[in-house]
C-alpha cells in the first residue's frame, strides 16, 4: 500500500502534477492517432484541428515545469518523490516533442492535400499504432509504477525501427524508379521518420519510469538487470 | 592509556559497533546495532524523536552510562579496542571522542580563552613544551572552529557574550582543543538561525579532513547537505545505513523511504 504524505498540501501538489502529466499525455496520444488519420484520409480539417491542439500541449509543458520548480523549491523532495519530479521534468519535454512531431505530420498532410499517395498507406498507420501504444503504455506504467510494462515499451522500439527501414527502402525504390515521385516520396519518408522518432521519445519516457520505480538507470543498457 | 593508538589504515572504520544494546532501567532503547563509522567522514544519524539516535552516539563515548540506571551491552570498538573493556578510562575516552550538544553550553563564568582551554585543564592534560603553549592551542582550536577572526580581539571577554552561533563554534573549539579523533554532534544547529547553521555545516565539511564526525540531526536536509553516510534509526533499530547519496535518492528500505519523504504513521 502506498502511504500518503503527512503534509496534505504536499500530497495535493504531487497529485496535481501527476494529473497534469496524464492529461498532457492523453492529448499527445490522441494527436498521434489524429495526425496519421488526417494524412491517410486526407482530412485537412482534422490536420488543422490537431495543429491547434498542440497549443494545449505547449502550455501544459510550461505549466508542468513551473509546478515542478515550485515543488522543488518549497518541499526539497527526496527519494521516490525526487525521482518523480525529475522524471516529470523530462517527461514533459518528450511529450512536447512528440506533439511537435504530430504537428509536422499534419503539416505534411496539408502539403500533400488531395494528391494520391505514392503507395497505399500500409506500414505508416501500423507505425502510428505502435508509437501510440508505446506512449500509452509508458504513461500507464508511470501511473501504475509498473517497471515491467515500461520495459515492454523499451522492447518494442526495435520493431518500429524495422518498419521505418522497410518503408524507407520501399520509398527509395519507388523514387528511383520514377523521378516525378520524389517530392511525395520525401514527404512520406519524413512522416515515417517522425513516427520512428516518437518511438524513441516513448522509449525515453519508459526508461524514466523504470528509474522512478526501481531507482535504476537503464538508459543505454538493454535490461534493468544488467545495471 | 589503554586505548591503542590508531592503525591508520583508511579502510578500517574509526568505530565498529557490534550488537549494541542500551537500556534506561528496564526500557531497552537500542536493539542490537551493527555499524561501522568510517574514518574522516561525516556520518549523519537520522530518525524520529525517541528512535535512539542520541542514545546511540552517547554510547560511543560512554556518556550513556552517566544516566542513573542506564546500561549498555555489545561492543563499541574505537580503532579496534572496545571502549567498554575493563581498564578503559571514560574520561580519557571522551578526550578522544569529543561531543557538541544541541544548545551551546560555554562555561558561564569563563572567558572565551578559558572556555577553549577548559577541557585540557579539567583533564589535567595541558601539554607543556614547545609548540604547545596556551596561546597556540587557543588560536589553533578557534581557527579550526572558524571563529578566530571573529573573537581574536576579545579573548578575555565572557564566552556567554558571543552570539548563539559563535557560542556553538566556541564549544566546537573547546572540543577540538583536546585534539580528539572523533567529534560527536548532537543536533548542533537546532538552536541556531539559518546563517549560523550554514557556518556550522561548512565547518563540518572542513573538519572531516582531520576528524571523524558523527552528527545527529532532526533536519533531513541538513543530513543530506553535510554527511557522506547516513544511518536511519527507527524504534531503537538501525533500519538502513548507506551513502547519503543513495539514502536520499534511492533508499532500499520502504521505512527509510517513508520517513525521508514525510509519510509518517
What's the quick description here?
Chain A is an all-alpha fold and 227 residues long.
Notes on the protein architecture:
Chain A is mainly α. Chain A has helices at residues 8-40, 44-75, 79-112, 123-144, 147-177, 182-214. In chain B, 34% of the residues lie in helices and 24% in strands. A six-stranded mixed sheet of chain B has the order 6-7-8-3-9-10, with helices on both faces. A four-stranded antiparallel sheet of chain B has the order 2-1-4-5, with helices on one face. In chain B, helix 3 (112-122) packs parallel to helix 6. Residues 1-10 of chain B have low confidence and may be disordered. Chains A and B meet through helix 3 of A and helix 8, helix 9 and helix 10 of B.
Topology:
The complex is a heterodimer of chains A (227) and B (265).
Chain A (H helix, E strand, L loop, with lengths): L7 H33 L3 H32 L3 H34 L10 H22 L2 H31 L4 H33 L13
Chain B lengths: L14 E10 L2 E11 L4 E5 L6 H8 L9 E9 L2 E2 L7 H7 E4 L11 H11 L11 H11 L3 H4 L12 H14 L4 E5 L7 H14 L4 E5 L3 H7 L2 E6 L2 E7 H6 L4 H7 L5
Parallel strand pairs in B: 3-8, 3-9, 6-7, 7-8
Antiparallel strand pairs in B: 1-2, 1-4, 4-5, 9-10
**Strands of chain B, total number:** 10
Q: Report, as a whole number of angstroms, the end-to-end distance of chain A.
A: 27 Å
Task: Specify the CATH homologous superfamily of chain A.
Answer: Phosphate transport system protein phou homolog 2, domain 2
Predict the CATH topology of chain B. Answer: Rossmann fold
Q: What is the CATH architecture term of chain A?
A: Up-down Bundle
Task: Tell me the number of structural domains of chain B.
Answer: 1
Question: What is the CATH class of chain B?
Answer: Alpha Beta
Report the count of strand segments of chain A: 0
Structural class by secondary-structure content of chain B:
alpha/beta
Examine the coordinates and then state which fold CATH places here, giving the name of the CATH topology of chain A: Methane Monooxygenase Hydroxylase, Chain G, domain 1
Amino acid at each position: 500500500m502506498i502511504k500518503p504524505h503527512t503534509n496534505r498540501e504536499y500530497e495535493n501538489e504531487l497529485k496535481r502534477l501527476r494529473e497534469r502529466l496524464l492529461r498532457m499525455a492523453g492529448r499527445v496520444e490522441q494527436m498521434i492517432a489524429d495526425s496519421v488519420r488526417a494524412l491517410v484520409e486526407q482530412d485537412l480539417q482534422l490536420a488543422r484541428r490537431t495543429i491547434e491542439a498542440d497549443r494545449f500541449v505547449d502550455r501544459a509543458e510550461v505549466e508542468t515545469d513551473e509546478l515542478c520548480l515550485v515543488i522543488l523549491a518549497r518541499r526539497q523532495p527526496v527519494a521516490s518523490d525526487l525521482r518523480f519530479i525529475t522524471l516529470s521534468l523530462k517527461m514533459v519535454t518528450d511529450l512536447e516533442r512528440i506533439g511537435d512531431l504530430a504537428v509536422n505530420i499534419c503539416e505534411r498532410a496539408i502539403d500533400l492535400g488531395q494528391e494520391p499517395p505514392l503507395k497505399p498507406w500500409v506500414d505508416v498507420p501500423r507505425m502510428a499504432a505502435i508509437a501510440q501504444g508505446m506512449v500509452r503504455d509508458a504513461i500507464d506504467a508511470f501511473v501504475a509504477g509498473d517497471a515491467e510494462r515500461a520495459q515492454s515499451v523499451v522492447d518494442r522500439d526495435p520493431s518500429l525501427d524495422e518498419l521505418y527501414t522497410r518503408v524507407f527502402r520501399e520509398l527509395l525504390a519507388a523514387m528511383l524508379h520514377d523521378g516525378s515521385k520524389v517530392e511525395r516520396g520525401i514527404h512520406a519518408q519524413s512522416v515515417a521518420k517522425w513516427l520512428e522518432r516518437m518511438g524513441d521519445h516513448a522509449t525515453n519516457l519508459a526508461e524514466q519510469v523504470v528509474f522512478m520505480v526501481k531507482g535504476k538507470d537503464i538508459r543505454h543498457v538493454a535490461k534493468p538487470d544488467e545495471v | 592509556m589503554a586505548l591503542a593508538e590508531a592503525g591508520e589504515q583508511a579502510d578500517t572504520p574509526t568505530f565498529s559497533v557490534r550488537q549494541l544494546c542500551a537500556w534506561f532501567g528496564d526500557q531497552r532503547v537500542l536493539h542490537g546495532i551493527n555499524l561501522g563509522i568510517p574514518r574522516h567522514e561525516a556520518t549523519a544519524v537520522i530518525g524520529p524523536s525517541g528512535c535512539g539516535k542520541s542514545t546511540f552516539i552517547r554510547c560511543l563515548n560512554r556518556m550513556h552510562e552517566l544516566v542513573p540506571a542506564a546500561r549498555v551491552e555489545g561492543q563499541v570498538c574505537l580503532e579496534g579496542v572496545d571502549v567498554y573493556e575493563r581498564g578503559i578510562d571514560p574520561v580519557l575516552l571522551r578526550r578522544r571522542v569529543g561531543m557538541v550538544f544541541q544548545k551551546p553550553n560555554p562555561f558561564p563564568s569563563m572567558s572565551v580563552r578559558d572556555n577553549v582551554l577548559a577541557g585540557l585543564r579539567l583533564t589535567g592534560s595541558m601539554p607543556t613544551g614547545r609548540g604547545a603553549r596556551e596561546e597556540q592551542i587557543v588560536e589553533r582550536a578557534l581557527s579550526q572552529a572558524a571563529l578566530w577572526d571573529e573573537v581574536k580581539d576579545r579573548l578575555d571577554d565572557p564566552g556567554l557574550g558571543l552570539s548563539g552561533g559563535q557560542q556553538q563554534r566556541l564549544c566546537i573549539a573547546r572540543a577540538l582543543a583536546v585534539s580528539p579523533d572523533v567529534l560527536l554532534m548532537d543536533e548542533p544547529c537546532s538552536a541556531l538561525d539559518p546563517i549560523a547553521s550554514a557556518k556550522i555545516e561548512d565547518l563540518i565539511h572542513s573538519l572531516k579532513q582531520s576528524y571523524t564526525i558523527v552528527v545527529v540531526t532532526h533536519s533531513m536536509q541538513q543530513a543530506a547537505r553535510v554527511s557522506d553516510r547516513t544511518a536511519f534509526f527507527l524504534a531503537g533499530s538501525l533500519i538502513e545505513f548507506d551513502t547519503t547519496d543513495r539514502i536520499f535518492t534511492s533508499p532500499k528500505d520502504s521505512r527509510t523511504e517513508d520517513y525521508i519523504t514525510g509519510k509518517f504513521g
